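Sorry to interrupt, but I need a hand with the structure work. It will help me judge whether the discrete encoding reads sensibly. Write everything out right here, beneath this request:
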Amino acid sequence: MNATTINDSSSLKWATDHGVYPKASRPAAIRLGWRLPLPSWADAVVQRIVELSALPTVDPSGSPPMNVDDIIEALNFLSRVMREDTRVPWIGRLSSGGIQLTWRAGDVEVEAVFDRARDERVLMVSVGENEWDAPVSDAESMFATVVDRLSRSL
């Protein structure tokens, strides 16, 4: 194993198997409770969130910056439901500052919305003509019913 040690002004040394992560990402990783090594989907997801948060606005009339608590909740949700072979979701920034995750595969569509500004934190699953929704806090079992169909290998 080839680990990199990261030194900063504190007495803590940050060792990772993936090299150096930006200093700003360490507090978020700690807040997320993620363990190293990070899941294979984490780099793509974090890169997309960084891209979206750099946009000045997503609405011609103006929009607030992305809500950090919505981002953290979305990342925690992903860490609970994603498997190594699950497709990385499409990630969109909402005009209210929230975040939306969407998976589509065949007749399966899954949307997870994290939007404190609109008091909306919900998972919606549709398979063919059938649709279900649940609060994100109770949605892990619902996601589990379709996770096999969201595999990258299908």
In short: Strands lie at 4-7, 13-16, 90-93, 99-105, 108-115, 120-127, 130-135. The two ends are 32 Å apart (CA to CA). The chain has two domains: 1-38, 41-150. Confidence is low (pLDDT under 50) at residues 1-27.
